[in-house]
């Protein structure tokens, strides 16, 4: 079983629960699904060489040491067709990259620049740290296909989300907002036409107490395997 290389972009810390869960999930993918992923933890301060990986996952743990490094990782995955997953902070920095480099917006993340004039990522009215919430999935989207359901209940550990004032602009430039909270706030986003480009504000790596991979992570792993074999992505 030949292992496929994935970059786990984030500043690894034993105090971040998702960082301790991800290695267990990698083992489960190997044992249960026969997908051998060789994870490399990549600090946001050194993201050179990402184009050589079969998958890129920007993991939780923000504020990152280097915002630009996280943004760069999302751009490499987007521009080079590398399967991409962003969770929590990874979701936020994927949106930041897209807003700046595709939409041409001069925007900031409130966690990093709280006094900036134009905040793409703003504090949530109520922090979701340590909470679960229902996510409504848009029909016909990748995440809806992955989950096989119209709704899902997911775990969060975040305090920042998309400033809704920018939602229409990002959508006009091709971003698909595929998951929402009951109040309409964005919880998942994806890019059609890319082999696999999905990000969630929730943390699928925290689902359950066992090592069983969340469907989103299993789908990402399958996309990594296809990329490594240079196989086309399945139609939605």
TrEMBL record:
Keywords: ATP-binding, Glutamine amidotransferase, Ligase, Nucleotide-binding, Pyrimidine biosynthesis
A single Gene Ontology CC term: cytosol
Record-linked Pfam families: GATase
Superkingdom: Bacteria
EC code(s) of this entry: 6.3.4.2
Name listed for the protein in its UniProt record: CTP synthase (glutamine hydrolyzing)
Pathway(s) annotated for this protein in UniProt: Pyrimidine metabolism; CTP biosynthesis via de novo pathway; CTP from UDP: step 2/2
Chemical reaction(s) catalysed: UTP + L-glutamine + ATP + H2O = CTP + L-glutamate + ADP + phosphate + 2 H(+)
Organism this protein belongs to: Nonomuraea aridisoli
PROSITE patterns membership: GATASE_TYPE_1
Residues annotated as domain Glutamine amidotransferase: 27-216
Enzyme class, broadest EC rank: ligase
One GO term (biological process): pyrimidine nucleobase biosynthetic process
UniProt xrefs under Gene3D superfamilies: 3.40.50.880
PANTHER family (alphabetical): CTP SYNTHASE, CTP SYNTHASE-RELATED
Family: Belongs to the CTP synthase family.
Entry GO MF terms: ATP binding; CTP synthase activity; identical protein binding
SUPFAM superfamilies named in the record: Class I glutamine amidotransferase-like
């Amino acid at each position: 079983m030949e292992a496929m290389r994935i970059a786990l972009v984030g500043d690894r810390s034993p105090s971040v629960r998702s960082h301790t869960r991800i290695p267990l999930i990698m083992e489960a993918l190997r044992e249960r699904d026969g997908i051998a992923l060789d994870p490399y933890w990549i600090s946001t301060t050194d993201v050179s060489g990402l184009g050589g990986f079969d998958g890129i996952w920007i993991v939780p743990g923000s504020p990152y040491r280097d915002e630009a490094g996280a943004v760069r990782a999302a751009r490499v995955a987007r521009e080079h067709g590398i399967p991409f997953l962003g969770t929590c902070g990874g979701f936020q920095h994927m949106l930041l990259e897209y807003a700046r480099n595709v939409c041409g917006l001069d925007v900031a993340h409130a966690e990093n620049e709280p006094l900036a004039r134009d905040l793409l990522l703003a504090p949530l009215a109520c922090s979701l740290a340590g909470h679960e919430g229902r996510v409504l999935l848009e029909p016909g989207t990748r995440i809806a296909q992955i989950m096989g359901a119209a709704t899902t209940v997911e775990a969060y550990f975040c305090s920042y989300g998309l400033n809704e004032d920018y939602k229409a602009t990002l959508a006009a430039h091709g971003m698909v907002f595929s998951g929402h909270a009951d109040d309409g706030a964005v919880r998942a986003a994806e890019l059609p036409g890319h082999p696999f480009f999905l990000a969630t504000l929730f943390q699928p790596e925290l689902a359950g107490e066992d090592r069983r991979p969340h469907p989103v992570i299993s789908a990402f792993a399958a996309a990594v395997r296809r990329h490594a074999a240079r196989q086309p992505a399945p139609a939605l």
